[in-house]
Design a protein that fits this description.
The structure holds 2 protein chains of 2 kinds.
Chain A: E1 18-20, E2 23-24, H1 29-38, H2 40-57, E3 76-84, H3 85-109, H4 114-117, H5 123-127, E4 149-156, E5 162-168, H6 175-188, H7 204-214, E6 225-229, H8 237-247, E7 250-253, E8 257-259, E9 265-269, E10 272-275, E11 278-281, H9 285-288, H10 304-309, E12 314-316, H11 333-341, E13 353-354, H12 358-366, E14 371-375, E15 385-386, H13 392-404, E16 409-413, E17 419-424, E18 427-436, E19 438-441, E20 446-448, E21 453-456, E22 472-479, H14 494-498, H15 503-509
Parallel strand pairs in A: 3-22, 6-7, 6-11, 11-12
Antiparallel strand pairs in A: 1-2, 4-5, 4-19, 8-9, 9-10, 13-16, 14-15, 14-16, 17-18, 18-21, 19-20, 21-22
Helix pairs in contact in A: 2-6, 3-11
Chain B: H1 3-35, H2 45-50, H3 54-61, H4 67-75, H5 84-98, H6 104-120, H7 127-151, H8 156-185, H9 198-208, H10 212-219, H11 225-234, H12 242-252, H13 260-274, H14 278-283, H15 286-309
The chains are: A alpha+beta, B mainly alpha.
Organism (chain B): Sinimarinibacterium flocculans
InterPro entries (chain B): ATP-dep_Glu-Cys_Ligase-2, DUF403
Pfam family, one (chain B): Alpha-E
Amino acid sequence: MAIDWHQYRCNGYHDELFEKPGQPRAAARRLVDYLGNLGAAELAERRLAAELAIKIMGVTFTVYSEGRNVDRSWPFDVIPRAITSREWARTEAGLKQRVQALNHFIQDIYGEQKIVRDKVFPASLLKESVNFRPQCVGMKPRHGVWAHICGSDLVRDLDGTLYVLEDNLRVPSGVSYMVENRLVTKRVFPELFETGSILPVDDYPAQLYDMLAAMSPRPGNQPSIALLTPGIYNSAYFEHSWLARQMGIELVEGPDLFVGDDDIVYMRTVYGPKRVDVIYRRIDDLFLDPEAFRPDSVLGVKGLMRAWLKNKVALVNAPGAGVADDKVVYAFVPAMIKYYLGEDAILPNVPSWLCMRKKDREHVLANLDKLVVKPANESGGYGMLIGPRASKKEREKFADLIRANPRNYMAQPTLSLSTAPTLTEDGIEPRHLDLRPFILSRGDSVYVTTGGLTRVAMTKGSLVVNSSQGGGAKDTWIVDLDGETEPPVQVQTQAQKGGRQTQSQGSAARPARRRRPG
Amino acid sequence: MLSRVADDLYWFGRYIQRAENTARAIVVHSNLVLDLPRNVAVGWSALVEIMGVDDLFRARYGTGYAEADVVRFLVLDADNPGSVASSLASAREILRTVRESMPHETWEHINNVHLILQEGGERLLTRSRRQDLLQHVLDAALMTYGILIASMSHDVGFQFMRLGTNLEQADMTTRIIDVRTSSLIKPRAADEALRPFQNIQWMSVLNSLTAYHMYRRHERARVRGTAVLRYLLQDREFPRSVMFCLNMIGATLPKLPPSRAAERALERTGAVVRDANIERLVESGLHDWLDEVQVGIGKLHEAIAASYFKA
């Protein structure tokens, strides 16, 4: 039985696939027609096929509270989300601009601090930043890049505007799921990809490899690159292993590496020590090197900072890059863009109130029931207050937290995140979602993924899309409507009508090969 | 090749081989029990003995050696580190950490059989379903081995995996022979009743190592004890014979960074197996001699670990 899309209600939110009930947006038209014709029963079957594929492919995600249970299948919704390539081109330009400004900022902060001297960025903020690393002062990483890999979270509000919600500059994750989501979708809905207007996403590992190679302190040599993981109990281990495999680089754990007396980083191999030029590290700053940071870290490598400061090894992202990955510093990004690039921000920030400012703080405390309050340095959606959904007690607790440490909190209006049709236990229903594109910076060029990872809050009405809190994902399509061609028309040839082709008919059907000009 | 990864691949090879041999031993024993008359039926304790986990078994299940207990212990018991489920879980855990150096399908097969064991549980152990379950294990192990041979680069990592496979097989073969043949060679009074069934018991020894058909083609004669032993211990062409496995290790070591210790350990054990006079050992001393071979295999393992994994 065909799906009646008129039954699908967007409840007043901006929907990614529908302008209004029964009327799909341009980028989604083909998708909606296709799913409609498929019918509910067939769609349910494809969903089972997708779940099976994910289970068999072993796409997993670990949730910390589940202890040693490291296998949770990646929660995936089969209905893709679609964006036109025109809208994406603008978004891409905005992301590039943003990341360039952020890299300028980090370099400036660990260098001359001009932006502080010019009073564009408050000195007090820096003093109390938990992600500022004094160990990095004076360092100039290759090509001036600190945040080589950035994952920015985008959300769409009621009026359809895409806002940047935050920039993840430490160890952003999710990109492997972006690629695997596409593989699953192609397995489940192969028919949809026949027209070729959905742009591919699988270029990322090659782009990442090129970027990493460009950071090698020994240009000209075949670089030796390793991905440093905390190990199999980390929630993103699947991704670490996936990326290492896709790029053909070594996947190492702390004890596999050591720093020699020559300040060079080596890995322990069956042939003896082998030099490492570039480390794509997926462990936090504070665990990187027990000599420089937490002495109790068993995940890191003793002397790693020493090697990095002497430019014997590249660390990606650079230690200390997190100074710009702070929900309070975030509010200054538009100012940074103006300051370093002399441009206006292409992508808007979500309006933010900084509790360090007296006036803002008063506003926040008076409107806790309407706002979302975030601590400056948490990720994964932990430690947040969603005012309209919180109890009175929770709000009071947060008011105390804010008064005790205003620098650590900022607040934003509760956004009405956009929705998209999602296959739930009760049929197709709208669920809220966001989008995390990944941006790679090499210094001379910046690459943005085609789309990104769409995360969806699987619980009805929920706004929390984090995978660590039960969120799921969707395949994200950037659809090239300009280049879209009609599906190839089946032209019946004489041969198909009349049976077996003879030799002469066959060669007549093919264009004769042109003679080489003599 | 990281030392840690080499270690993992070596153990991956061992775990897969161990799971396969254990599964096969249970299948064959189940068949043997059906073939023997009720009043003389052999018990299930021999299987536990083969795996060298007798103490652990008695601590958990006592000394009854009931079929259901033994099968559960050897197939599913997570507390038995040598059970099929434990071996596969360990292999899978390793795959998770070395996934980037293995062909993708390896994971799918191991993961699949792991899930069957975890989800199916006890109800798959009844006599009627056991065969299917264990066949899954055998298939997954052989598929994995086949995939690795056919689509993994035969690089250093592969060689370590192959070292593990062959070392484990050599060890398993000696264990199976040791336990299975003690009562066949010198039947005690109590075993007299089994005498008429000696033939099918020797066949089951061969079957435990998938050697029956190959043996027949090789010997072209009826099954005889000494010839069976010579075949399983010294044949140079049968891939589960101890000699063959040691020779494979001998062919693999030169592809790795040189290790005198491993070469010496291999030479020593290789000579013990090659030079043995099986006829005389059958008369007396087979058990002690098999012990010597097993200790030699253990030393070879230690030499490999010290040379490559503790860098």
